[in-house]
Amino acid sequence: MRKLALIVIVLSILGTAATCRRSGDKNVVTVALPEKFTTLDTLTTTASDASAERIRTLMFISLVRKDENFDYVGELASSITPSADGLKITFTLRDGIKFHNGKDLTSADVKYTFDQLFASNGYKAGAFFDTVPDTDAKAVMPSANSAANSNANTAPKAPEVKTKRVAHITSIDTPDPKTIVFSIARPSLKAVLLSNLVAVPIIPEGSAAGQKESPVGTGPFKFVSFDASQNIVELAANDQYWDGAPKYPRLRIKTVPDATSLQAELQTGGVDIAPNPSNLPPDMLNALGSGGSLRVDQFDGSNLQYLIFNAAAAPLDKVKVRQAIGYAVDRDRIVKDLLSGQATVANAALPPQSWAYSPGHVYTYDAAKAK
Length: 371
Prior knowledge:
By secondary structure, the chain is an alpha+beta fold. It is built from 11 helices and 15 strands. Strands 2-13-12-11 form a 4-stranded mixed sheet, covered by helices on one side. A 4-stranded antiparallel sheet has the order 5-6-10-9, with helices on one face. Mean pLDDT is 85; it is low at 9-24.
């Protein structure tokens, strides 16, 4: 599990007016992202965009967020109440929340957001469905031509299994302007629903068409401009943000994919903050945090790096072979030497902070056992 890093200008974080920005504009904080963003509309987009999602969290907030303990708590919602049978989850909206256009947030906006999400059939909508075999559909056999043209040594193809999508959410009701009730297909979907709600930006009713060009949300920063040719977004502080106005009046967000360029911009003041700079090698990250005007803050994240093997194919179909691999890999040394300590060894598919964490067998490096 890789550790997340946040690189900041020390004096900028301390808020000293004369040294807030070494480039001379103390009212503008420049943030560097490692990858270009392709859209500002993260609700209906058809593909994942990590940089766009970071910008989303500045302009939008969701019904639910993940706190420092990786628990799901209310964000736009002041309370989350499951029914006794676990099939309904009621969200009560906080008082006094306004969109950037001055409109009060209501349950109708939440319902509208999800209507737009599901109508878009984008990648985020897919998270609210299960894909299961369609038992009502007949299996489709490979055509005679495809069978005749196949290599004689190739195993015959299995029938194509038809699938269908089954919705997690069976209905969304708005009994009053402050209340939203999600009905789910089965009680076990509660945790899945909450985890998926985190990434859904709530938008004002009727605003979907304009979100791509001029996003409107309820987040701490408001959209000002987007220079597509330079991949630069300008944001201004939302003085009416429900949790208090941001410290910085203005943000400039740009992309700096090249590690050497990012290092130079951080050291010369062209960039003030680099959240989770995944393009920086671990040794460069350590060097940047070794002193001077830069500070590297690190904390545990949920990013995983892993290899997946096909356990159905020889020789990996033998459990002893898979166990030997587990003992043969010195993961502690990989973390120390290859990742410069910027990771922790994982013993399960998900980190301990995850609600779905299940501890697995701990394989420690043992060359003798691997033989």
